[in-house]
Amino acid sequence: MQFSRKHLLGLEGFSKEEILYILDTAKSFREVLSRPIPKVPTLRGKTIVNLFFEASTRTRISFELAEKRLSADSVNFAVSTSSVKKGETLRDTARNIEAMKIDMVVMRHSAAGAPHFLSQCVDAHIINAGDGQHEHPTQGLLDLMTLQEKFGDLSGLNVVVVGDIAHSRVARSNIYGLQALGAKVGLCGPATFIPYQAEHWGVEIFNKIDEAIEWANVLNVLRIQLERQQGGMFSTTREYFNLFGITRQRIESAGKDITILHPGPINRGVEIESELADSDYALILQQVTNGVAIRMAVLYLFSGLSSDNSSESDA
Amino acid sequence: MVAERNNQVIDAAGLHRTLTRLAHEIVEQNRGVANLVLLGVRTRGVPIAYRLQRMINDIEGQDLPVGELDVTMYRDDVFQKIKQPSVQTTNIKFNIDGKTVVVVDDVLYTGRTVRAALDAIIDFGRPTAIQLAVLIDRGHRELPIRADYVGKSIPTSQGEEVRVKLKETDQQDSVSVIRAFGEK
Amino acid sequence: MMNPAKKAARVLFKNATVVEPESGKQRQSDVVVEEGRLKGIEQVATDGFDGEVVDVAGMILCPGLIDMHVHLREPGREDEETVLTGCQAAMAGGFVSVCPMPNTDPATDKAEIVTYLKKQAQDLLVDVFPIAAVTVGRSGEELTEMGDLVKAGAVAFSDDGDPVASADRMRRALEYASMFDVAIINHCEDKSLSKYGVMNESAVSTRLGLPGIPGISEDVMVARDIQVARFTGGRLHIAHISTANSVALVREAKQQGVRVTCEVMPHHFVLTDESVKTYDSNFKMNPPLRTATDVEAMLAGLQDGTIDVIATDHAPHAIEEKQVEFNAAPFGIVGLETALGLVLKHLIEPGVLSLPQALAKMSNAPADILNVQRGRLKIGSEASITIFDPEAEWRVDKKKFMSKSKNTPFDGWQLRGRVKALYNKGRLWIA
User: Fold this and answer.
1) Which residues of C touch A (CB under 8 A)?
2) Do B91 and B66 touch, CB atoms closer than 8 A?
């Protein structure tokens, strides 16, 4: 198919065909990872900067690996939060990127819309590695790839995202990606964690984990950010675990096959029972492997077009 | 208005004869089939490789390993193409160290696909030797590459296209030379 | 560059379509100004007229328009706007009187600052009627010297930019201000609800992943202020009303005789929060753009008189401060130069309000709230006149703004209504 997007800013608006195309491409790149020499020269000569305004180890390493496996030249720009004055650094950074003739920017930022803003300032191709609470498209894609490996066609699959949905970019990318592939999405968490008017997404909403588990084929368990406690949004982690924690007992009481995903890092004993995270129910390590393959596919697909050929509408 | 003149140069029967001869040549040149493996270059090199495998089995009674190689990631013209080529999967389930790898493709033209295949093969291991078998050699090499086994040499001009059709992918066996003329 | 305004004690405006918004009267006539005062609205022969003659055939002539909510940024942020450039922007938009809010640096919490502001405008055509702070430094603590400030020329009090957060302060402010018969203008926002929100909290903010400012942060304070105004009998004016609930509360309060008035900004009846989806900070202001339901309530409120005034909340910002990711940008857009065009295109043209009804909200209504001798074509009073071509279509080009700042969401919009001439403070300006 003709892949005509210049940037990957989010999964909202992606068609089923586009997503399947990315997943197919990722399968080929995953094969590369298992070779004796897991490297291809595809992006040789391309310069990619990893612009991480928010601390992140796993996503950045995953992207870095993907870039190196594609033989691209990869540069890291980690901005310490203490030196960032509101907005100033991003704009100035953009100008520096232009001057250094960088081809692609992989960006993570705490402000939703920061990659959109950057795409107006520079000519480089932008990959969103997480913008505030808005989207984390490569995470969404690797979740889809992992589910596709297990289930094949995702139409009619019931997937529940559990946790702090309101503040989760992973949840949003999941919703858009899963719905595009025909899956049904449910959200489960305390009422304070369900965003305002979430119904407009066409999702099921559960405030009780047992009801969610009864409905679901798949649980995507989000990390609970303990800072939210201070914001008055939930009481204690103990209460959270009692009400929403994913435990072996809960899964087995449902009496059916449940698949568990988690974007990591895991708060063992808070959102999920420690032992369960390591069990066969969970596909967490497959997610990580697929993460590198997805990122290779994304870097490949979003680098290949010159700016003359790119389409107007980008995410 | 683009019109095409379609000139069939090999029919189904001719294709079968050509491949049979190639199979014999491969066996003869290598004095048997010890340490031999076939590697089909996607897309159409793959069914040709499988056919050669069957034919060689008929001759020698031995089933050669066949691998499927996608060279898109190794092409040097990835970014010149307006339509981005789809990446497909490479499938080589055996070790190529110490083997003689016969690369199989349908048409040899500029030689760039074969160069990309060579790069890929080196990443997979250290073969003893690499040979090249092609159904059609249409000339116009841009790199110093030559085939060891050629089904048929068809001199063409730059404006022509050699179209190979195989039952496995195109429901028929034929080779045609297409000449487009007229204004686009 | 702008034509200069010049002193002109005697002016004859010929062939005007005179509109008196308060009465709704509209007629063809000449208008005479003598010694800077409105002499008459009648046919006058051109020959022998000793003074300027300006032919305004085809134009609307109405009382000079008043914008009772602007930010002139002087003193403190003269890089964003000054009294001079702000007044030039006002003129380009058809306004002859503006009320600058006190969130300057230093804040307008002392008589000297009011005097300074009036002095900066003394040679300009535009009136500057300063609004002074309710509390010293706008800190929400000590009340300012309201007597002194009124004497220096302050026409109302507000801590705008911030609410008067404490209900007790609001009560004392309303009681104290009533001694001078001035209004307390409140920026109604409960900050514990709005927290770090940057846009309206709705399905849109949920989708965009931006922290939301829920409508209730405005509603709860409007409700509170109405109770306090009722209790004290003081004069309350709600700044930049934006939610359907707030309008309903004001409607009910007026029916019960509470002395409350309110104003709406054009962006709150023209745009919705859907506009934010491009993450363009030119759509970021406080209160934020709300939902379509809220916009309908604004239009209904304008029609039934619940909403008394249309003002702009003209909020200039330096380009580099707005050209950032949405979260980091300051709130606010400029509005002086697009207000009249938006009113004509999006209120009058679609028939929400008639021309006199709309103009009333920008002339006699604000004049009454502020107790200034403006907003009416009253024979014998100081002449204060706006003249515009109601049919002229034009395209907004922010590069041509008189304001120092260009942060507008309306760049490129087709609007109607071009200012042609102004008269105020004995000065005449022809565009």
Assistant:
1) 201-203, 205-212, 214, 278-279, 320-321, 323-329
2) no
